[in-house]
Design brief:
The chain is an alpha/beta fold and about 425 residues long. The chain has one domain: FAD/NAD(P)-binding domain, CATH 3.50.50. About 30% of the residues lie in helices and about 30% in strands. It is built from 11 helices and 23 strands. The strands form 5 sheets. The protein has an 8-stranded mixed β-sheet with strand order 9-8-17-18-19-16-20-23. It has a 6-stranded mixed β-sheet with strand order 11-5-4-15-22-21. Helix 1 runs parallel beside helix 8, helix 2 packs across helix 8 and helix 8 (about 315-335) runs antiparallel to helix 9. The longest helix has 29 residues, at about 345-370. The radius of gyration is 22 Å and the shape is globular. The two termini are about 30 Å apart. About 45% of the residues are buried.
């Protein structure tokens, strides 16, 4: 019996099969695994995606609450994967970025017009990306999605990969991709070590409706407890990422709606007029982590399974999409040459391509967090001068702006808008 999709694109049912064969098994069909599956399948690489989450719930407002910054380069990955048309109506462009340090009069301001007409990127609610994946996958003959489903056993050897789902379905592939998030079971079962440290901070996330337009400006205020970001969404709405000391978060989250709004308003300010919290609030502990290896026998890691960073620079999603572009290019080229997609040399090529870039961004975000998440007067004085200096150096500003747009470094084809 073959698995099938129902007519409802937001509901996927996997029916038991005796055995199926594919080129690549992707464990995790979320914000990174989903786009990877679409990119590979449309280029003729057959994929099976196993995701533990129920498609009926992952697009609901109460499931996640977060929004992601998608820079221009990574946006091209979503576009070439066929996902962007469904995402665009739910995305707000970032035309300006304003960075300030508490009450200091010194600041850093980026304007996209300094580089051309393209915005720096877009802010997109995560559920819009998930919905686009669920709409796109059934249109691709080379893709199959099993959700909600879990892997009961996974074997990897020189001849290939064999996974058995809890319903008895067996999936055989040449390669397994771990796209199952920070707590990746695929990574753990492969014995790949993890370097990790805790910031003792928590991100409080919510959506705010406001009286005045945001004019597509992303704001980041550095406060002693951590960064406070106001990110534009379509309409008079913004996503708030409020970083706070973890010891205070339980009490803040337990506040009444009015008390929480009052606390939020003291940090948000009045520049957008009257504000209201729209929907639930969420809290996410903040850590940094990275896998000690990106590949093993017939296995590679992508996205948060390989690296997880602080949201201070809004680069987590972008780094994951860069992984997608690099791995998809390596695998599609290998498929066309008739090579084994689980070949160790191929996987090491991907790992080398991505590891330095990811570690560099992890290091940069860590330095920013440690530099700005304090109120030590000498440090505050130096960092404020740094913001003001960069703001007055056009050449350096242009470099930082291009970096924010994801246009720096060795770019895979998809990040240049080139189809695989």
């Amino acid at each position: 019996m073959e698995g099938h999709w129902t007519t409802d694109p937001l509901r996927v049912i996997s029916m038991a099969m005796s055995e199926i064969d594919c080129d690549v098994l992707i464990v995790g069909g979320g914000l990174v695994g989903g786009p990877l599956a679409c990119a590979l399948a449309q280029a003729g690489v057959s994929v099976a995606v196993v995701d533990a989450e129920d498609p009926a719930t992952i697009t609901l407002p109460g499931f996640d609450g977060r929004a992601s910054a998608v820079a221009l380069g990574p946006q091209r990955v979503l576009e070439t994967a066929g996902l962007w048309p469904a995402i665009l109506p739910h995305a707000a462009p970032i035309k300006e970025i304003r960075v300030s340090d508490g009450a200091s009069p010194l600041f850093l301001h980026y304007d996209h017009l300094a580089l051309g007409q393209d915005p720096f990127g877009w802010i997109v609610e995560n559920r819009a990306i998930r919905r686009a994946v669920l709409e796109r996958l059934p249109k691709l003959e080379a893709a199959r999605l099993f959700a909600p489903a879990r892997i009961a056993g996974l074997a990897r050897d020189a001849s290939g990969v064999s996974a058995e789902l809890e319903d008895g379905t067996v999936i055989k592939a040449r390669l397994v991709v771990g796209a199952d998030g920070r707590a990746s079971k695929i990574r753990q079962d492969a014995g790949i070590g993890l370097t990790k440290w805790d910031y003792h901070q928590t991100a409080i996330v919510c959506t705010v409706a406001h009286e005045r337009p945001h004019y597509d400006i992303a704001q980041e205020h550095f406060l002693p407890a951590g960064p406070f970001a106001i990110l534009p969404l379509p309409g008079n709405r913004s996503s708030v990422v409020w970083t706070e000391k973890r010891s205070l978060v339980a009490d803040i989250m337990a506040q009444s709606d009015q008390d929480f709004l009052d606390e939020l308003h003291s940090r948000f300010g009045s520049f957008l007029g009257k504000i209201e919290v729209e929907g639930p609030r969420f809290a996410y502990p903040l850590t940094l982590q990275f896998a000690k290896a990106y590949s093993a026998q017939r296995l590679v890691l992508v996205g948060d399974a390989a690296h997880g960073m602080h949201p201070v620079a809004g680069q987590g999603m972008n780094m994951g999409l860069r992984d997608v572009a690099a791995l998809a290019e390596v695998l599609v080229d290998a498929k066309r040459l008739g090579l084994d997609l689980g070949n160790a040399t191929l996987l090491e090529r991907y790992a080398r391509w991505r590891r330095f870039d990811n570690l560099l961004m992890l290091g940069l975000t860590d330095v920013v967090v440690r530099l700005f998440s304090n109120d030590v007067a000498p440090i505050r004085f130096v960092r404020d001068l740094g913001l003001a200096a960069v703001n007055r150096m056009p050449g350096m500003k242009r470099f930082f702006m291009r970096h924010a747009m994801g246009l720096v470094g060795e770019l895979p084809k998809m990040m240049r808008g080139v189809a695989l």
